[in-house]
């Protein structure tokens, strides 16, 4: 497939995810979805060069939502997998498969600093942890002197 066609598909994919994020989610999700799509477009083997773009759009949102607790009612924004599939007219199993491909391709997981929303990055429980003598300990359990030493030690690694 010529590069021009891939760029056109990428642009359409961005439009599809933007439409969903504008209607159902928020700007943070839009930014993370755009980042993911742009990164997918730079892969040697672009995953969305084949297949229906509606499926890829739903899969991108599903992948980003999976690592940002989108499907958990206690988090905002909240959406269900059914809402994503209804919006794009896609099948749950197909979207889940494509989402898994995307998550595996970029090693996406919970509290992934690259694909988490800013809100999730702020809530990351590991932000307050440091390694001291081979043990992971909460930063606030250390004295001021040890805190400074632990932080500077990790920054130099």
Based on CA atoms alone, the radius of gyration comes out at 19 Å
The major sheet is characterized as:
2 strands, antiparallel
Number of strands: 2
State the low-pLDDT regions, or none. Answer: none
Domains, number = 2
CATH class value of the largest domain:
Mainly Alpha
Provide the helix percentage.
Answer: 55-70%
How far apart lie the N and C ends?
43 Å
Q: What is the spatial order of strands in the main beta sheet?
A: 1-2
Q: What is the H/E order? A: HHHHHHEEH
Q: What best-fitting shape do the alpha-carbon axes yield?
A: elongated
Secondary-structure-derived class: mainly alpha
- Reported by name, the CATH topology of the largest domain is Cyclin A, domain 1
Strand content: 5-15%
Helix segment tally: 7
CATH architecture level-2 label of the largest domain: Orthogonal Bundle
| Mean model confidence by pLDDT | 88
Written account of the structure:
By secondary structure, this protein is mostly helical. The protein has helices spanning 3-24, 27-41, 53-67, 81-88, 92-105, 118-123, 144-156, and strands spanning 129-132, 135-138. Strands 1-2 form a two-stranded antiparallel ribbon. A hairpin with a 2-residue loop joins strand 1 (129-132) and strand 2. The N and C termini lie far apart (43 Å).
What are the defining features of this structure?
157 residues; Cyclin A, domain 1; mainly alpha; 7 helices; single chain; 59% helix
Which secondary structure elements does this structure contain, and how are they paired or packed?
Layout (H helix, E strand, L loop, with lengths): L2 H22 L2 H15 L11 H15 L13 H8 L3 H14 L12 H6 L5 E4 L2 E4 L5 H13 L1
Antiparallel strand pairs: 1-2
Helix pairs in contact: 1-2, 1-3, 2-3, 3-4, 3-5
